[in-house]
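Acyl-CoA thioesterase 2
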Amino acid sequence: MTSAIDTLLSILDLETLETDLFRGMSPQDGWQRVFGGQVIGQALVAASRTVEAERSAHSLHCYFMRPGDPKTPIIYEVDRLRNGRSFSTRRVLGIQHGKAIFNMAASFHKKEEGLSHQIELPDIPGPEDLPSEEEVYESYVAKAPDNIKAYFRRERPIELRPINMEHYVTRKKLEPQQLIWVRTTSKLPDDPAIHKCALAYASDMTLLDTSLFAHGLSVFSKTISAASLDHAMWFHGDFRADEWLLYCQDSPWAGGGRGFNRGSLYRRDGTLVASAAQEGLIREIDR
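Tokens:
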């Protein structure tokens, strides 16, 4: 198990302070603000701990209200809004320095049979046919600006294998779409709730960037102030976050300093297991 996965599991292992009250820590890796995926994952852990074991998360809707301070613990307060016959609803508030920085509503569902259909997996190369992160660094990132190089040098708990790397090495305006294989860098415990929390963490990676493709920019661009504003996710089927999942992303709209992005996550056998949507700040700034 890599040290990055150890860190991920440790930040998802919240400390219980009191009934429905939890404390989460952030990794001390030099970031000026807390990664949004971390807060989503921790909030989902907090909500999951207040729900019966046979009910699993099927959707979550989040708002990021203030930047998180990585030097300070985040307190997660869970409100048990409803326990119905099939669904349980929770609200989670993330608090730092006495102020709310994050809000999430999550719903949990008791598994049942029903009508079924899905959009098919696109026909694209498998992850073993694409360069590894080390090969990507040698071929592309070594020639990139220092801030991009620093990002790719950092050990992360999520491995990414993009189908196309052009976005990272050119200012060319591209279609606002991307396909990326994702998985954790080593095995996770078998608890399905941990895999959902890990995927919630990973779902915030690269998604906002999609809205910048059409403008020849990225979240690394020094002329852009970028941040997640809200994030929603739906879980459709069983999966393991430590096995390859294809993250299909597109951005149908951007305007007014905001970009809207969508994502679909497929297992290798073609099963659609999760969907995500996010609106983010993509404000142009003067330098």
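Residues 115 and 236 are 12 Å apart (CA to CA).
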